[in-house]
Amino acid sequence: MLRPASILPFPFVFFFFFFLIWLRALGLVLFLHLLFLQDKNLCFLYWG
């Protein structure tokens, strides 16, 4: 029932998870960059 091959191709699933991990890492890097710049307004907009 939960076979990956019956729902989506394996390469697509792998790329999807890789994109999610990359997106979260990029967001963390941007947040730390704004935090080090001490720009409170941009930090609030990012989390808001």
Uncertain segments are none
Number of domains: 1
- Rg computed from alpha carbons, rounded to a whole number of angstroms: 17 Å
Give the helices and strands as they follow along the chain: HHH
Overall 3D geometry?
rod-shaped
Percent range of helical residues: over 70%
Provide a count of the helices.
3
Integer average pLDDT: 72
How many strands appear in the DSSP assignment?
Answer: 0
Largest sheet composition: none
SS class: mainly alpha
How much β-strand is present in the residues? under 5%
- In angstroms, what separates the terminal alpha carbons? 38 Å
Descriptive account of the structure:
The chain crosses the membrane at residues 12-37. Keywords: Membrane, Transmembrane, Transmembrane helix. This protein has 48 residues and is mostly helical. It has one domain (9-47). Helices cover 83% and strands 0% of the residues. It contains three helices and no strands. The chain has helices at 4-7, 10-37, 40-47. The longest helix is centred in the middle third of the chain and has 28 residues, at 10-37. The radius of gyration is 17 Å and the shape is rod-shaped. The N and C termini lie far apart (38 Å).
